[in-house]
Amino acid sequence: MSRYPGLNRKNSRGFASGVLWVMTLFVLASGGIAWVCTGIVANDRWPIRWLEINGVFQRVSAEQFRASMTPLIDASFFTVDLLALNDAARRIPWVSSVEVQKEWPDTITVAIEEFKPIAHWNQGRLISREGVVFPVPEADGIQGLPWLQGPEDRLDEVLRHWSDFSEVLIPMGLEIHELNLDTRGAWALKLSNGTRVQLGRESARERLLRLLASWDLLMFEQVLPPQDVDLRYTNGFAVLWPQHTETAIGTDS
Prior knowledge:
The protein is of the alpha/beta class. 33% of the residues lie in helices and 26% in strands. Helix 4 (155-169) packs parallel to helix 5. The strands form two sheets. It has a ten-stranded mixed sheet, with helices on one face. A three-stranded mixed sheet has the order 1-3-2.
C-alpha cells in the first residue's frame, strides 16, 4: 500500500479531468470538421458559377462543349468532378486535347484543341498533323484532302512515301490526290491532274523520278495529261492517253 494515499487520489482526479477535457475537445473538433465538410460538400455553398471554354474552333463550337459539360458543374468548387468534365469534352468529335482546371472561387476553365486534318485514311477516318488517326462522322465527305489507303499497320510507311512522292512531284506542278498501298506492297497514285500512276512494289521513288525526267517530253504538244502511266517496267513506261491510245516510252535508265 502506498505511503501517500492522499497524493494518489489527487492524481487520479487530475487524470480523470484531463481525460474528460481531451474527450470534450475531440467531440468539439469532430463536430467542427463535420460542419465544415457539410458546408463544403453542399452544392449551394461555393457553387460553380462560370464555365469558360477556350480554343480556336473550326470544326466544333464552344456551345457544343457548354451543352455537354454544363450539367456536370452542378456541384461545389471542392466536389466538382474534373475527370467527368474531361471525358465529356473528349466525346465530342474533332477534339485532340482537353485541359480542365478550377479557378477560385467559382470558375471552371476548359482549354480545347482540335485535330488539324492533313489527309483521309481508308474509310471514315482522318490523319492529323501529328500523324494521329481519328474518326469523325463526316470524314468521307470532307473535300480538299488527299486520300491515303493501305493496311492499318503500315500507316507510318504510307505517310513517309506520301512525303517522298510529293517531293518528287513538286517540280512537275502536281500533287497527290490519292495514294494506295495494296496488301502485296504495290504503290499506286492518282495525281491532281487526274493521271493514274502505277509504281509497283520495288524502287517506287526511282520509278517516279523516271517519269519526272520524261515529263516535259511526254507533255509536248499534248492538250490533256495522260490517263494512265505504268512505270512497272525496267527501262521505260507505258502511257494511256484520254483518246485510249497507248504509247510505250523507253528510257536509258
